[in-house]
Amino acid sequence: MEYSKELLNLGELVYELLSEALGVDSDYLKDMDCAKSQFIVGQYYPPCPQPDLAIGINKHTDSSFITILLQDNIGGLQVLYDSQYWVDVSPIPGALVINIGDLLQKKREEKNRAEEAMESIDSSSQAKAFDETQIGVKGLVDSGIKEIPEMFRATQATLASFKSPPPPKHLTIPTIDLKGGSVVEKIRGAAERWGLFQVVNHGIPVEVLDRMIQGMRSFHEQEPEAKKRFYSRDHTRDVIYYSNFDLYNSESASWRDTLGCYTAPEPPLLEDLPSVCGEVILEYSKEIMNLGELLFERLSEALGLDSHHLKDMGCAKSQYVAGQYYPPCPQPDLTIGLNKHTDISFITILLQDNIGGLQVLYDGQYWVDVTPVPGALVINIGDFLQLISNDKFKSAEHRVIANGSSEPRTSVVSVFSTFMRASSRVYGPIKNLVSKENPAKYRDFTLTEFSTIFGSKKIDTPKLHHFRI
Ligand SMILES: [Fe+2]
């Protein structure tokens, strides 16, 4: 009687401390009657003649909010740490052992779930309101905001990843001269190690590149009314303008707007494109188709295949062009330009201006800047090529930091894929690249299957594992 009365007092104190540790009012758990009931058990473990063949109590968790244990000096209690190590709870004279029971874990989970629900209600209604304005991030900046809205605040995990150690100085993105020597070997090395490289001497006049950047920039810098005509979330439409592909799926929005259009195999009609950039989009995407064909030839050879192999598989057939606009951000340390992801493409050709901000993950540990090289284009391997090459080539994980400069950043992404449009074409690891020693790592898939997954997840969710055998 005496001991249990003392324990009730101690229990009240522990619940107060646990409430504070949960970040709630100190009476929170007591008010939920967690401290009200108590059941005392006296355990007696007689000496065992064959202790290696029996146990004192099998592993378990307690069906309590908390349990307070008083033990003598014999020892024997162990607790599982991190699901892997059984650690002795060595007796400390005069100490009591407190352990969290199932009911308290449940309360904590309920609280977390409620908080998450509140946050998602809050951010999804903010996202909806933002979406309905159709003004994009550029519109927010033009409104003169000094602080980014809550929905753009990146998660702690994302922000922490931006503080990871810088890469060693010798790690720089390969730049390959397409008219130079050993092109196939260089592409093979870059595609295997980086999944991303820059190309120069690619045959597209710099003047066309400049006009393309300028055209996309002009689109985004028009009056909102001129852009709203294209605003949509139907990603199968020929031409759309939107902000944040995964606005309703992601935990936080990115500081970026996009104009996207399908340019191959059927280019859009000039009159269906925005007048400020329509002509240059058609001209540029034609040039990119030619460069894409050349790159797929070299990539085929780099895989040890006939130079037409990837083209014959239809890898160079479809193209989707996206003009990304990253307005200057008033709080670039709190948000991102584009969350980390791999591309839904065979390859992607990226044209960027001189602002910078693109980074690629090297060796799963270092985020390396893809520093703009005047006149160069960035090539990155997408998920489809990683899959059909049976992991020989690596789909590059990349991201864009929020634009902290006073100038906007503009880039043009040409994705070799049917993107979000249906395609029943089946792909799988190329037969010539699999063998008994190197069996297929992926099952066959249709592009539609991939794009359905892509469209339903936040952008930083890995997709390839869905197809892994
Ligand atoms: Fe990308």
TrEMBL record:
Pfam families: 2OG-FeII_Oxy (PF03171), DIOX_N (PF14226). Residues 100-127 form a coiled coil. InterPro entries: DIOX_N, IPNS-like_FE2OG_OXY, IPNS-like_sf, Oxoglu/Fe-dep_dioxygenase_dom. One of its GO terms (molecular function) is dioxygenase activity. It comes from Capsella rubella. Its cofactor is Fe cation. It comes from the Eukaryota. Belongs to the iron/ascorbate-dependent oxidoreductase family. Keywords: Coiled coil, Iron, Metal-binding, Oxidoreductase. Residues 36-203, 317-422 form the Fe2OG dioxygenase domain. This is Fe2OG dioxygenase domain-containing protein.
